């Protein structure tokens, strides 16, 4: 696997691939890689001539009181995992290179970023859309593989790509879970053993709500309460449990097959998110 350690190197690498006629699949990440990330890399490799992953802990998507400085970083382990998933190259960069002095340009997506995580993390999506816009211009991929674990993020980025006529396709990929149902996340590393057990309430609540949906329950408030009660029962701090339209992310009063039940909660100090598309048949893939 090749390592492009800066923007100039990755531009050169990708343009060589292009000249050789390869299509390019791209997986943007913040590192601390796990099987969820690797599922995206494998799909990129299966569908494109070359697969490239970026690792960059993007400071602009963290709020002032969030976990930027302690976010897990382990390049050696990440590189090994990427090589094992047959990734062709890894691109790394730095805050200084991405946001040099004088940086003043921001990309924002409206409406879709107001609710769910956007309500409690008001500057988060501006950071995500700005860094992804930069990464897409730098790497110039044909397809970008993103996890539905961050359902709002994929929806926001699809809108950005559509509205800005970026010549690439966003490919949403299913959530990869631990054997017991917990959605894989780099932030799971923060959980102590007791929190790890309590964190299961998110996926358990979603599964119960989906079972209720499958039995005919359509009232959003009731489905939300099923998930919320489960989460609150383990002494987690609920941020939201909301049924939204799968395309517009608008809250729904009645659920339908495209509706998504999305949850976010703090278990201890760790903020976790998860979601289920209510009409999608289970089981959700696990690692
Ligand atoms: P992150 O490193 O957390 O910024 O995530 C990078 C990409 O991996 C994003 O597209 C995430 O949605 C995706 N991802 C993270 N966790 C999972 C998971 N459990 N299953 C599938 N994709 C995931």
Which key terms come to mind for this protein?
9 strands; six-stranded parallel β-sheet; about 290 residues; globular
Q: How would you describe this protein?
A:
The chain is α/β, with parallel strands linked by helices and 287 residues long. It has nine helices and nine strands. The protein has helices at residues 7-19, 35-47, 75-84, 95-98, 117-120, 124-139, 151-163, 193-214, 220-232, and strands at 2-4, 24-29, 50-55, 89-92, 143-147, 169-173, 237-244, 260-267, 270-277. The strands form two sheets. Strands 1-4-3-2-5-6 form a six-stranded parallel sheet, sandwiched between helices. The protein has a three-stranded antiparallel sheet with strand order 7-8-9, with helices on one face. Helix 7 links the parallel strand 5 (143-147) and strand 6 (169-173). Helix 6 packs across helix 7. The radius of gyration is 19 Å and the shape is globular. It binds adenosine monophosphate. Adenosine monophosphate (AMP) binds at residues 29-30, 36-37, 39-40, 146-147, 149-150, 173, 175-176, 183-186.
């Amino acid at each position: 696997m090749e390592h492009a350690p800066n923007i100039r190197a990755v531009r050169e690498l990708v343009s060589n691939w292009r000249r050789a006629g390869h299509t390019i699949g791209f997986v943007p990440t913040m590192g601390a890689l796990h099987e969820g990330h690797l599922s995206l890399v494998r799909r990129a490799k299966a569908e494109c001539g070359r697969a490239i992953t970026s690792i960059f802990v993007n400071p602009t998507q963290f709020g002032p009181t969030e976990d930027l400085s302690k976010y897990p970083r382990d390049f050696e382990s990440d590189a090994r995992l990427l090589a094992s998933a047959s990734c062709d190259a890894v691109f790394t960069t730095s805050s200084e290179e991405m946001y040099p002095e004088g940086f003043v340009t921001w990309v924002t997506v409206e409406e879709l970023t107001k609710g769910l995580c956007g309500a409690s993390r008001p500057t988060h999506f501006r950071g995500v859309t700005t860094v992804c816009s930069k990464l897409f211009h730098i790497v110039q991929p044909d397809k970008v593989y993103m996890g539905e674990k961050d359902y709002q993020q994929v929806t926001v980025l699809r809108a950005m790509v559509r509205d800005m006529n970026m010549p690439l396709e966003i490919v949403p990929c299913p959530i990869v879970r631990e054997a017991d149902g917990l959605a894989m996340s780099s932030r799971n590393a923060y959980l102590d053993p007791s929190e790890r057990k309590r964190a299961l309430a998110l996926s358990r609540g979603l599964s119960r709500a989906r079972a209720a949906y499958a039995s005919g329950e359509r009232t959003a408030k009731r489905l939300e309460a099923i998930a919320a009660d489960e989460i609150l029962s383990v002494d987690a701090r609920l941020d939201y449990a909301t049924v939204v339209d799968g395309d517009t992310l608008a809250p729904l009063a009645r659920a339908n097959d495209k509706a998504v039940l999305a949850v976010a909660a703090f278990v201890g100090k760790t903020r976790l998110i998860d979601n289920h598309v209510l009409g999608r048949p289970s089981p959700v893939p696990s690692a």
